[in-house]
Structure formats: structure tokens, C-alpha cells
Amino acid sequence: MTTTWAEAFAPASVGNIGVGFDLLGHALLGPGDRARVRLTDRPGVSIRTVRGGPDSIPLDPASNTAGAALLAFRAIHLPDLGLALDIEKGIPLGSGMGGSAASAVAALVAANSLLPHPLPLIDLYPFALTGEAVASGGRHGDNVAPSLLGGLILALPDRPLALPAPAGIHCALVHPHQVLETRAARQALRSPFTIGEITAQSALLARFLIGCERGDLDLLASGLADVLVEPRRASLVPGFAEVKRAALAAGALGASLSGAGPSLFAWAEDRTSAERIADAMVAAFAEHGIASDRWLSPIAAPGARLLATG
Predict the structure, then answer these.
(1) What is the DSSP code (8-state) at residue 208?
(2) N or C: which end of the chain has fewer CB within 10 A?
(3) Element at 134 (helix H, strand E)
(4) CA-CA distances (angstroms) from residue 282 to 204, 258, 268?
(5) Which residues pair with 263 in a beta bridge?
(6) Angstrom distance (rounded) from CA 253 to CA 107
(7) How large is the average pLDDT for residues 137-141?
(8) Residue 131 and residue 210: Cα distance in Å, rounded?
(9) Structural domain spans, the chain
(10) Does domain 170-298 have CATH number 3.30.565.10?
């Protein structure tokens, strides 16, 4: 029987992980986006519905992250057929949780399953980058790669590389009820950085990567910081300094903005510690009169998956 439709899920993610701007990311267990893709006889890509998100999400495929990803995918792999897309948003828009990437990834995983011989998931990476560029203006994979493949990823421009996540490490992710669009957050980075700042960040990134490779939590924690982007974006998130301070005081290995923000993440040695840290972060936001949601997730969380076909 020929498969004519498929539905897939792609998880939220933490982009940058503080020290790895546009390079590092990890998947989150829990929230995510769903996409259903149906084959049609009418060439092209159409977006029929977007549920769970604001009316501002465009239905024009070329202006939508999932639509743009499918346009690129279809041009190569399904040129004689059309694709109709329905999206269900489970990730708040402008949250710093990789919602634009998740929509693109879910749509691609669904469409890929409609091929007679589906591609390995890693081969969907360049198409997902095309979709992500619609939202952020650049082909960076720090959210795309972990949403697609799961776990902790070094997202290089040409390929994603899986990194070892030290055993037991968990993430506390806290999303204040605010919206901060990626493009707006990037405006804070317009001024050049100094060589000294870049060298310092490079040293921190090296510490982080070697700490992950060796399973050395002290080395990892000493590199889990951001001297480039965080100082310029922190003021865009009310209460940022107090929330980060609360996370570190509660025992976090490190804490920073998740992606462009306004969500904050913190890494913890285990789930129990992550729970305590998340409570402290939520309480710190509340002291500023800001409600927030929280999630706990292992760093080695799963990536996208196919849900159903018919």
C-alpha cells in the first residue's frame, strides 16, 4: 500500500549552550512541534493550517521555516508531486527553545518517510538549515541538529557531530512568559567583538568540549560560560541576572540564555539537582512579577521521530 501522508514530532532544544554560539545545542525531553505532510497531485508546497501558535506565523511556504525546508526537499526528492503541510506548535514562539527549527525538522521527517527509500536523518540537515534561515537569517544548526538527531551536538556548517554527554547530566529549562524574537536579539550583536573577547570565548569552548569528552565535570563547568553574547543580550530579559545567580547558588554547573532567550537553561549533575535549580529559577522570576514554565530533561534526550503514516 502506498503511503500518502505522515506525521512526525520534533523536540525543543537549547541552542548555543552559552559557550557555543551558533555551534552547540542539545535536545529537550518534553515540548515539541508536530507536522503532518500529505502528498498531492498539485506541484509545490502548501501550508493548510498552523495550530497552537499566533496568527502571525506565515502560511506562505517561502516565509515559513517548515515550508521553506519542504520546498528545498521537494525540489530534489519529490519534484513531480506536491506536499500539503499541517503544523501543530507545541513550543512557544520567540522562546529561545528552537521552535522554528523544530517545525522544519518535523516537516522534513514526515516528508522523508513518504519517499520509496527514506534518507538517513542526518541527510535532512541541509534542508532543515534552509528552513531555519527563514527565521534567523542564517544557516546555523545549533537548534536544528539536536532537534533532528537528539543529544548533545556540535553543529558544523556542513555536518552535525554528536558529542558525549557526561552521564547523569540534566538540564533545567525555565521559560518566562515573554517573547524575544531571534532576529531582534541578533541586533544586539551588531558591534564587532575584540580579539581578547574572542580568545577568551575560544578558551572556554575548548574547556567545555574537552570536559565533555573526558567526562570531567569540573573542566566542563569551568567552560560553561559566555563572555561574548550573554553580556549583550542579558538586558533584553528582565530578571536575567537574578535568575542566573539563583541557578548558580542552587548548584548549577553553569547557566545562561537558551538560544536567543528569553528562556534560561542551567546544567546540573543529576535530575534531583536540576529540580532544585529549576525551583530557584522560577522563584527568581516570580520576584520580578514574571510567571514562567519549567522543564527538566537529560542532556541525552531523543530527537525527532515519526508518529504515524497512512
Answers:
(1) H
(2) N
(3) helix 125-136
(4) 27, 15, 16
(5) none
(6) 35
(7) 88
(8) 31
(9) 5-163, 170-298
(10) no
Burial of 82 (0-12, 13-18, 19+ CB in 10 A): middle
Q: State pLDDT tens for residues 233-271.
A: 999 999 999 999 999 999 999 999 999 899 999 999 999
Domain 5-163 CATH class label? alpha beta
pLDDT classification of 182: cutoffs 50, 70, 90: low
Strands of the sheet with 254-257, listed across from one edge: 254-257, 264-268, 170-176, 292-298
Global pTM exceeds 0.85: yes
Cell numbers for 102: 523544530
56-94 residue pLDDT tens = 899 999 999 999 999 999 999 999 999 999 999 999 988
Q: Are 60 and 1 in contact (CB under 8 A)?
A: no
Beta-ladder partners of 294: 174
Q: For the chain, what is the radius of gyration of the CA atoms?
A: 19
Is residue 1's pLDDT more than 60? no
Going by their DSSP bridges, the two strands 82-88 and 44-51 should be labelled as parallel
